Amino acid sequence: MSVVESHDIEFAAPRISEASVADYIALLKPRVMSLVIFTALVGLLLAPGHFHPVLAFTSILCIAVGAGASGALNMWYEDDIDAKMTRTANRPIPRGRVTKPEALTFGLVLSFFSVVTLGILVNWFAAGLLAFTIFFYVVIYTIWLKRWTAQNIVIGGAAGALPPVVAWAAAAGSLSVEPMLLFAIIFFWTPPHFWALALFRAGDYANAGVPMLPVTAGPDATRLQILLYTIVLVAVAFAPWPLGYFDAIYGVTSLALGGWMLLLAVRVYRQRTGSAALRASRNLFKFSILYLFALFAVLLLEVIVRGVIGMPA
């Protein structure tokens, strides 16, 4: 048996994480989270009955943390895709600021505590819906659909449409037609929003091997699908007014916003070459964000007006 001198033994120094607070915040996808928080807040405030402000804040916080956890787990799994795309190459994992195990641990811990906290402090029905939302986004969309089918955005859009449903369930303990209408609006909004982005980022998606519709079916087929989904979106978003679920201010605003959204979708369909085509898809992508925020802002305004004048929800 050979004798190994102590000075010949080398131990690997533990890696010191280079991640900053900003890197972990970036893992949460804060821009996506802001939309989740806003739509969830509208769903919560539209729910009938009185909901204690502390429980309301807890519900929105848990939904926000759950959304952030989903973003972290998405980045953990898609680090190879992110590294190949210009839009995502500066995310914390491709840059080497956060390791994959760190991101996985961060996402799992946040997922667990968001669901358990919502269940213990609010109700387990809402917590179950939040757990399903996280599972759907991470497993069904990120791990399965995104790399497998061009319909990834269509089916996966259900995850992004669930936050107002979860918030309603937190406030009411049950579901009804209104949160499902909110779900439908976001669900049909998602394809034209993301396909408009995919049109001017098609090279990125092709390079990363992601089967987005412009890559698999071509830009012209994508333009047609954007137009068709936008028509459905405008109709679905307008329907709650004549059906008597939302008020006139919502209906009129929905018509105005929907008309402009449809006009931009027509421009995307007609402009097929050169800089005009890129500009048309960028304009639709940017306006679609404003469209959804404005539509839900009007619903929020209706809630505030009802509270001021003392009308029942």
TrEMBL record:
Its EC number is 2.5.1.141. Pfam families: UbiA (PF01040). It is a multi-pass membrane protein. InterPro entries: Protohaem_IX_farnesylTrfase (IPR006369), UbiA_prenyltransferase (IPR000537), UbiA_prenylTrfase_CS (IPR030470), UbiA_sf (IPR044878). It is found in: Cell membrane. The keyword GTP-binding does not apply. Its main location: membrane. PROSITE patterns: UBIA. Keywords: Cell membrane, Heme biosynthesis, Membrane, Transferase, Transmembrane, Transmembrane helix. It is an enzyme of class 2 (transferase). One of its GO terms (biological process) is heme O biosynthetic process. Carbon 2 of the heme B porphyrin ring is defined according to the Fischer nomenclature. Converts heme B (protoheme IX) to heme O by substitution of the vinyl group on carbon 2 of heme B porphyrin ring with a hydroxyethyl farnesyl side group. HAMAP family: CyoE_CtaB. Belongs to the UbiA prenyltransferase family. Protoheme IX farnesyltransferase subfamily. NCBIfam families: cyoE_ctaB, PRK04375.1-2. This is Protoheme IX farnesyltransferase. It comes from Rhodopseudomonas rhenobacensis. The lineage of its organism: Bacteria, Pseudomonadati, Pseudomonadota, Alphaproteobacteria, Hyphomicrobiales.
